[in-house]
Amino acid sequence: MIAVRNGHRARARMVGLGAHVPERIVTNRDIAEHVDTSDEWIVERTGIRERRFVADGEAASDLGVIAARRILDDAGLLAEEVDTLIVPTASPDHIFPSTAALVAERIGAHRAAAFDLNAGCTGFVYALAQACALVEAGIGRNALIVGAEALSRLTDHSDRSTCILFGDAAAGAMIVAGEDDSTTGFLGFELGADGAGGPDLIVPAGGSRQPLEEAEPGDAYIQMNGREVFRFATRVMVESITRLLNALEMGIQEVDVLVAHQANSRIIDNAIGQLGIPAERVINNLDRYGNTSSASIPLVLAEARDAGRLRPGHLMLLTGFGAGLTWGSTLVRYEPR
């Protein structure tokens, strides 16, 4: 699906960013103490050096609450002003109630509609599309997006193929309606899914297909066909970005900042080479946080803002891929209040 924004009616704008990560740092050497691997092996194959894990008793909503408050502070809004709260997550606190409802209650967003969105690691881009649609349709004046993940809870820490990859974090953005004559904000989206690849990245148990009481021990954890997911990601990221830019009749040279889902440095490097974007315009933090799924893109954005690498007016190309298998890209101008 490609949606190119035309017209000037209350174009949605991104005006705030925020993030939070747990205190516990888990290095590659920590992981090498209980599985057959090494720091050198992990860095060479993924680019990851360390990641963050939640504390005992801590869940996705706990991270999301702190990130949500930081996003609101950055956007200059109060929780009671939030119309919609969307939590993209692959590791919700519960099947239901939604993690979004729990976050809304704790931050005091009592008038907000609240729901979770599960598009795997593409969740933040999908949530941006949802927020943009709601705001530009006039259903609400704003939407708070908080990607919140506690993936360490769903990881088999004896499985070398997955335990080296995933980390925990929460991060997101505030989307608001701009002026009627605004021509900036979100310029377009390219979204898609291929359910045939669903089994390649999956938590088999815990839903109606396989209740936990019927599951094998390993089925409650993330299972991944790494080779197939890598092949999918290297292809679909470039294709999605190319389709979006072609639909907008724009070139990669017009992009100020590219932020891709932080899954594997080799996937990102491959895309940089094929797209021809200068490496200095690509911002990553994969080495310090690993794969934080729906929190990964906004976590990069929040850190880039704090470091002065993301400035007002920058045109950002955001692209994700993940379980589903799903993918999505959007082009948006950063317009903080």
Describe this entry's structure for a reader:
This protein has a single domain, classed as Thiolase/Chalcone synthase (Peroxisomal Thiolase, Chain A, domain 1, 3-Layer(aba) Sandwich), CATH 3.40.47. Strand 5, helix 4 (99-107) and strand 6 form a beta-alpha-beta unit. The chain starts with a strand and ends with a strand. The protein is of the alpha+beta class and 337 residues long. The mean pLDDT is 96. The strands form 4 sheets. A 5-stranded mixed sheet has the order 1-9-14-13-12, sandwiched between helices. It has a 5-stranded mixed sheet with strand order 2-8-7-5-6, sandwiched between helices. It is built from 10 helices and 14 strands. The chain has helices spanning 28-32, 39-46, 60-75, 99-107, 123-136, 160-163, 226-248, 265-275, 286-289, 296-306; strands at 2-4, 12-20, 24-27, 50-53, 84-88, 113-117, 142-150, 168-177, 186-193, 201-202, 223-224, 257-260, 315-322, 326-333. Helix 7 (226-248) runs parallel beside helix 8.
